[in-house]
Structures are given as C-alpha cells and as structure tokens.
Amino acid sequence: MKYASAVVLLVALLAACSGGSSNTELTLVAQNVELATQIADVRSTATVEADRLRVTAAYVETAMAQSRLQNQRLSATIEALGGNPALVAPVASTPVAPEAGNPSAPEVTLGLVAPLSNETVMAATSTPGQPALYNAVTARGVGANDCALAPVTSFTTADTNIYVVATASNITPGTMLASRWFLEGNEVIAHDFTPDFAIDQNCVWFYIDSTETTFTPGNWTVQLEINGQPTGEPVAFTISG
To answer: Is the pTM of this model over 0.70?
Structure first.
C-alpha cells in the first residue's frame, strides 16, 4: 500500500537526519502518519456514503411526485365516470431506491393504485359514463364560467339571490336537471332545466330569489336531481334574520 511505503520512507529519512533520535520518537512519528492516513480514508468513505444518501432521497422524492400526479389523473377519471374517488382505498407500496450501478431500478408506487399510462387514462375518460352532478355548493353568484364565485353556507334575509352550483358530467341533450329547495324539511320551491346540448365537466346552476320565495330564517337544504332521481347529498345552508 502506498501509505505504508510512505511511512517507511519517512521513518528512514528521520532516522538518517536525527542521528541519535530515539526509537520512541520515530515510533510516535510513524503512528501519527498512519493515523492521518486512516482519518483521510474515513473522510473519503463518509463522503461517498453521503452522496449515495442524496441520490436515494432525490429518487424517492421524484417517484412520490410522479405518484401524486398519477393519483390526480385517476381521481379525475373516477369523477368523470360518475364515481367517488374518496371511496377508493389507498394502496401503498415500499419505495425501492436505485442500486449502485443500476440506474433503472423498479418504479416506486405510492397512493391509490399503480400508475396508469396516458393511453389508459385517455381511454377511460373517453368512455361514456352515467350522468352526474357533483361538488355542489351554494353561493351568492356565479362567474362567466357558470361556476360559483365563492361557496357560501350562511345567508340573510337581506340577500336577494341564492344559487346552487354543481359540476355536470355526461349530461346528454334531453336530460332533465332539477333543484328542490326545502325549509326545515318541507319543500318550498322547485326548478327544472332540460338542456338541448351536451354538458360535460362544466358548471350548471339554479337559483331562487327573494321576489318569488320568502327567505324565511331557518335551516334550508337543496337537493339536485337528474331525470327525477336525487343525485348526491342535499346541500345545507342557513338563512338568518
């Protein structure tokens, strides 16, 4: 080993220069040189291990980001097909870091299910599904895109309009949409709408105004329907005096 040769050479030089130096001093010098060599070896090993840990952490972080993206795509697919993503049980697997000299380690899968290819996602989203109204909220108004300006659950008798807004998917021409408004469980008013065009992943809304319906203080709900059948849970809101 080159370090051992250097130690022997240094000891020999010191012995030649010191003349009468004691063997003890030469031994201490040799031990100091050897200790310095060992420290250098330890530092080199620690640097390599630190680099490996950084590579592993970067790999896992990237894999988790990919998994989150795939899960978002899957959730969008389930919603488009009229399902509820919240009912899908999470399935997690153990991350596998790349081995030394093998950059193509198995792909990490974290989240709902194994990642879907783009082709699979596109095929699923293009498959006709059941008509649905979901993410329903109440609001004081809607924007140019027909979606709620801001969800509101507390209104007053001073308000003039109360909207219910939902995202519609797979609504074909001729499908009857309706809203039924209840005060303390008693139906107060109902509205229906039958579009002559398709609606998919766009907002639809109904509203009541204070000129047609008295905004009586109390606990209200509004139930959306598709072709006479309730869809989703009733949306609750309150009106105060």
So the answer is: no
